[in-house]
Amino acid sequence: MSDLLTWTGAAGPVLNPLLLALVALLLLAWVLQFMLSLFASGDTAVVLADGTLAARRGPADLLGMAARWLLLGVLAVVLAYLVLGLVLPGKPAKGIIGAMSAQFWPVWLALIVTFAVSLRFKRKLGLYGKLFDSPVGMVGFGIVLFWIFTAIFADIIITHDPLAQLSGLKNKVPGTPVPGEDNSYYLLGGDSLARDVFSRMVMGARRVLAIAPAATAFAFMVGITLGLPAGYFGGRLDTFLSFIANLVLAFPVILLFYLLVTPEIRVTGIPIILAAALFIFPVIFFCVLWNSRYFTDPKKRNIYVGLTLVIGLWAYSGLAFNADPLGVWSMDPNLLNVFVSVVFVNAPTVFRIVRGIVLDLKARDYVAAGQTRGEGPWYIMLWEILPNARGPLIVDFCLRIGYTTILLGTLGFFGLGVSPESPDWGSTIDDGRRLLSVFPHPAIVPALALMSLVLGLNLLADGLREESLKD
């Protein structure tokens, strides 16, 4: 049997001491920066021969420059681990980090292509292109894209079936070789059921990203469709819709999720009723959108509205009632419970955000100009007010995906996820927590994956907010 893989492989003897030295110096530089910040800075300006003032670098400036270079050095060493993993032959030479880097090769390729094209044409890509002017936004976007591409290429990246249980690999440490298979390893160890932690982490990204963005998009459809008229018309409509939204928000989120996702709730038919009510909103939204835009062009309006009704109601019948005759649109009962719960809980918050934005924007001059031209209320709401609210809504959309990801992880941790054997991160954390003090890796790996995705979404939202405020 092969020996255990080391974390850094053949590159370890050279790169490990270098990395430790750079990290130690970086921490020292940060500590010294903090200590200097506690004291008042002295005069940092000098008078030149021509009488002008010039800045003089003080100790804090030199420490800041040193910290930046040390941080770049740390990142360069980490990058070296990943690159060597792609070029060194054999997994023993690659090590665990290098072997994982080699498995992620389609993700690296997709990231390089995406960033290269985006940077080349960023001035023509609107708010998305401006995102690349923000270092924070670029880092967040890179992390989010990493997990998106991981979900897309999960079947190529995984080393074993995430549900397969292999004899003799129960609770094995990272880098354990698989008996009877040459050059095959459990890169991040095995869990309590002898399943590959690395493959479950990778496939868990697909489970999370298949639910969180789509459910958040549905919640936005509901919130926008109801929030626009509530803020624009006001009156009794606003009072009624705001009361319903506040009523839903009055429940503790976790308790509401727990009540909506329990298997017993399916017997009552409540998930199907909620799905029937919530899933129709995208159809309503797009029908109203096309009708308001092409009201003066009946031919175009009828084509767009007709296509929306055909495709929308086809998807609606399959997703809400599992009644698609062609079998293209369908949703597992457990997934329907989770999906409906996410939409139901998030929609009132989106409604309040949209309503507040509309109350502010409806007094602007371009709204008055549209009313003077004789434009209809829905045209003004959808084609005048909504585009000018896109900045805050895009930022909130990114943040809300992160919140939804955390909620999905919480549900999986409580055993209320999509299915008991699902590799979603919450369920995997719950499986690993029972032996956390003895075998921490089955729980720590998905926890770090969940944390990194949410961190990336928050950084992306910060970058989008920063750039949208410049418009």
Tell me what the structure shows.
The chain crosses the membrane at residues 20-48, 69-90, 96-117, 138-158, 208-228, 240-261, 267-291, 303-323, 335-354, 397-418, 438-461. This is ABC transporter permease. Residues 205-461 form the ABC transmembrane type-1 domain. It is a multi-pass membrane protein. It is a single chain. With 471 residues, this protein is mostly helical. It has two domains: 1-38 and 56-103; 200-468, MetI-like fold (Orthogonal Bundle), CATH 1.10.3720. The chain has helices spanning 12-37, 59-87, 91-103, 105-120, 126-130, 135-152, 154-157, 197-233, 235-249, 253-261, 265-268, 270-278, 281-293, 298-321, 333-361, 365-372, 377-388, 390-413, 425-433, 441-468, and strands at residues 45-47, 53-55, 176-177, 185-186. A two-stranded antiparallel sheet has the order 1-2. Helix 1 runs antiparallel to helix 2. The chain is globular, with a radius of gyration of 27 Å. It starts with 11 loop residues before the first helix and ends with a helix.
